[in-house]
Amino acid sequence: MKNVTDSFVSLGHWPSAGSFGLNTDILATNPINLSVVLGVLIFFGKGVLTDLLDNRKQRILDTIRNSEELREGAIEQLEKARARLRKVEIEADQFRMNGYSEIEREKLNLINSTYKTLEQLENCKNETIHFEQQRTINQVRQRVFQQALQGALGTLNSCLTNELHLRTINANLGIFGAIKEITD
């Protein structure tokens, strides 16, 4: 302890120690002043700085935790959205396939219906043609029969005399009487 006091006492022996003044030598006083200021700042500011850093660290950790929670929520939503997308794509494919098969089915039904309609129209056409042919044939037969009958009547009227006419009537009456006796 004596050494420590001796050093303070020996300061009194310095020539400048007797008076108080400013030392203008910047190179000599600056490192001393800086070390004193840094020492005071470290000693008194250590608690404040530690509190500030702890608060900052806690905010950063909270932000990281919140970010992780948001990230996990976003990942869950993304997975749900992907699952919904897959489901919708599957349903769209099913609708597309059902639509295509429905279109094909309707197309076949339309083709079959058209064939049936064409077949019915063909049958109607053939029946109409057959009917018209029969009607035309009957008209031709009637005309031929009328012309033949007119020709035969004309020939008979020109060839028959009253006597020949009476003999033909008697012969026909005889044939008619014979048929009547056979049937009785």
From TrEMBL:
This is ATP synthase subunit b, chloroplastic. The keyword Cell membrane does not apply. Its main location: membrane. GO terms for molecular function: proton-transporting ATP synthase activity, rotational mechanism. It is found in: Membrane; Plastid, Chloroplast thylakoid membrane. InterPro entries: ATP_synth_b/b'su_bac/chlpt. Belongs to the ATPase B chain family. It comes from Cleidiocarpon cavaleriei. The keyword Transcription does not apply. Component of the F(0) channel, it forms part of the peripheral stalk, linking F(1) to F(0). F(1)F(0) ATP synthase produces ATP from ADP in the presence of a proton or sodium gradient. F-type ATPases consist of two structural domains, F(1) containing the extramembraneous catalytic core and F(0) containing the membrane proton channel, linked together by a central stalk and a peripheral stalk. During catalysis, ATP synthesis in the catalytic domain of F(1) is coupled via a rotary mechanism of the central stalk subunits to proton translocation. Residues 64-98 form a coiled coil. F-type ATPases have 2 components, F(1) - the catalytic core - and F(0) - the membrane proton channel. F(1) has five subunits: alpha(3), beta(3), gamma(1), delta(1), epsilon(1). F(0) has four main subunits: a(1), b(1), b'(1) and c(10-14). The alpha and beta chains form an alternating ring which encloses part of the gamma chain. F(1) is attached to F(0) by a central stalk formed by the gamma and epsilon chains, while a peripheral stalk is formed by the delta, b and b' chains. Signal peptide: none annotated. It comes from the Eukaryota.
